[in-house]
Amino acid sequence: MGERGRNGTLAEALAESRAAFLAALREGDAEAAAELYAPGAWLLPPEARPIEGLEAIAAFWRAGLEAGMTSLELETDAIGGGERFAYELGRYRLRLEPADGDDVVDRGSYLLVHAQQPDGSWRRAVEMLRSEA
Question: From CA 121, how far away is CA 17, in angstroms rounded?
Answer without folding.
Answer: 9
